[in-house]
Amino acid sequence: MSSSAQYQLDSQRLLAFLDQSPTPYHAVESMTSRLAAAGYERLHESQAWELQPGRGYFLTRNGSSLIAFHTGRGNFVETGVRMVGAHTDSPCLKVKPRPDLKRQGVWSLGVEVYGGLLMNPWFDRDLSIAGRVTHENAAGELTSTLIDFKVPLARIPSLAIHLDREANEGRTVNAQKHLPVVLGSEQPGESDFRGMLQQKLEQQVGKDAGQLFAWEMYLYDTQCAAVVGLQSEYVSSARLDNLLSCFCGLDALLERAGEVPSLLVCNDHEEVGSMSACGAQGPFLRDVLERLVPEGLDRQRMLNHSMMISADNAHAVHPNYADRHDENHGPKINAGPVIKINANQRYATNSENSSVFRQVCSGLSIPLQEFVTRTDLGCGSTIGPLTAGNVGVSTLDVGCPQWAMHSIRETAGLRDAEYLVRALAGFYDRSQPFGGGVV
After folding, report:
1. pLDDT score for 436
2. What is the DSSP letter of 155?
3. Strands lying side by side in the sheet with 181-185
4. Please, what CATH class does the domain formed by 4-90+238-428 belong to?
């Protein structure tokens, strides 16, 4: 393992990960492939585990959430576990179960809005469709397959300004009426979305695909992730919130050089409240920790010696909207990771756990910033408070600063991503146990 101080971000690998991950299912598939290539062993919740010291393991739930961990010396109780959390989902448009709309000679699909979406940027984009379908295999058993059409095949056309003269004064989007996506001209016969998926499935797995029963399919922008800026200092992509943190957390786990038990959890459903079997309000992480240390009192000791960093992007100060930030808490892109603080526990940060992170970053010469939302504005939240309340572990909220959060196209800094990986790897390698009221 290399030292975090020597780490250099591979921007092309980051771009490839973003492009290969149009849905949480694809993101988890990409991460598990990398973990397996690095020698981590896949575990299954339905089987008994025989964990060995000095080994790496991973498991998934629902195909959209991932936990990977390294056992280190294996002394979970005395050293605790260094944990990093992120989430795999992003606000988007999801295809309805019965989506077909045939109107005015045009075939469109009805969609649902997933999460707190900025809707206007979705208009006039070259969109494709990806997700998971559940179907029979050749033996008549139910199985699931990931599908990605990849090519542009849908769009949401804007209404011409000639037909809406007040558009630039403030256009309101009605999600039910204005967001159905155009697939193309209405076709003669009985063509429908189910048949389109069935055909794609058979092309992918063969004629033995069997009957298709259900799907979870999402729209996404086909424009590839890119390095942009006069000095190539930014990364521009869909889903930076929060695939950038997933990428940084995984890089840091694989960079870790020490022997302390280390864990990465990437939950689904953060953007819709996290209340699911694989979300941060669900039991996934707790179930894994109970298997690592089955005895209750020992597990409490382990958690008292442990700490979680919730990594989720922060709002960078926008040069055109600087007044939307508190004047003393406006993080800048490529000026370092952001510690996120909120008096009402929308973030889980406190003085002790933030001091741990500050000490780690100080030792690695990594600059830090702070974000506190304006007092007259509401504050978003993360998996941090949910994990702290659900598991009972001290949790800190940090993240890379970015622009255009929840848009179809977001922007962050490459230098910040490198800083965050180095900081998280340094945190993973911290040997001193936590707890006792003194950090």
Report:
1. 55
2. B
3. 142-148, 127-136, 212-221, 92-103, 106-114, 181-185
4. alpha beta
- In the chain, pLDDT over 90 holds for what percent of residues? 89
C-alpha closest to that of 379 among 351, 345, 410 = 345
CA-CA-CA-CA torsion for 58, 401, 420, 366, nearest 10 degrees?
-170
pLDDT tens digits, 354-392:
999 999 999 999 999 999 999 999 899 999 999 999 999
Distance CA 91, CA 157 (A): 20
Structural class in CATH, domain 92-221: mainly beta
The whole-model pTM stands at 0.96
Q: Once rounded to an integer, what is the mean pLDDT over residues 18-38?
A: 98
Q: Which of 29-38, 198-207, 352-361 has the lowest mean pLDDT?
A: 198-207
* CATH 2.30.250.10 residue ranges for the chain: 92-221
DSSP 192: -
The CA-CA-CA angle for residues 11, 13, 16, to 5°, reads: 110
Helix 11-19 vs helix 414-428: angle between axes, to the nearest 10 degrees?
A: 90
